[in-house]
Design a protein that fits this description.
This is Rho GDP-dissociation inhibitor 1. InterPro entries: Ig_E-set, Rho_GDI, RhoGDI_dom_sf. By secondary structure, the protein is α+β, with helices and mostly antiparallel strands. The chain has six helices and 13 strands. Strands 1, 2, 4, 7 and 8 form a five-stranded antiparallel β-sheet that branches. Strands 6-5-9-10 form a four-stranded antiparallel β-sheet. Strand 9 (191-197) and strand 10 (205-208) form a beta hairpin. The protein starts with 10 loop residues before the first helix and ends with a strand.
Length: 285
Amino acid sequence: MPPCPQVSQTPLEESMAEQEPTAEQLAQIAAENEEDEHSVNYKPPAQKSIQEIQELDKDDESLRKYKEALLGRVAVSADPNVPNVVVTRLTLVCSTAPGPLELDLTGDLESFKKQSFVLKEGVEYRIKISFRVNREIVSGMKYIQHTYRKGVKIDKTDYMVGSYGPRAEEYEFLTPMEEAPKGMLARGSYSIKSRFTDDDRTDHLSWESSRARLPRLLFFFFFGLFAFSRAAPAAYGGSQARSLIGAAATSLHHSHNQQRGIPASNVGSELRLQPTPQLTAMPDP
């Protein structure tokens, strides 16, 4: 049997390999991002059902009207097999992109491991979450995302979504404007664990994204991705960790356009590819 041919690295891959953080650097990022979740003394109030709330002070007409204004007259779902909270879609909205990038969260979440979602570095974007509340009030809903590199957690992001009562129509939550990170250190492989939860720590939806590989990096800020009050990052950990994730999108575009025969031009420290869509989705080979 003839020996297997040696696979040589391209200059781009060799350059990116030199930028790989060491194990010590990753450990430092993890240490600076470590949060003591048990140090928070907040205790959510006792949960009451819709029926209990409606029965309270039912002889008080003004209070009855106030609760009706808050809760509405919608007959909520009584089917115990239907989850109280159903997260239906997660959409990346970018004004400079050809159109929004949408994920259907009601289907097979495993399929996300076979697809890469690419966000061009430096663009501004927002995340829109669509969900339904079917039976009872849900308090303190949030989305939590953990980012890992080489098995080390390097970043945690929270978005506080808030509290919602049941209704027939879907709710939509739109995050503040974000800017995609950029920089050479962002090139690498990452895995994302995402979870939708609330004050009672109910796991409404969770999944783990596949590990992104160069040159097809997946920026899963959802994609891992509900929540919402961005945790304040440590000086090296959070900000540089997000930079680590974002600039890898440049590598993806560079490799993808090289395959298509589209030239790239270096302007300062920013790699610009022309023409390049600013928001794309492509399957992993």
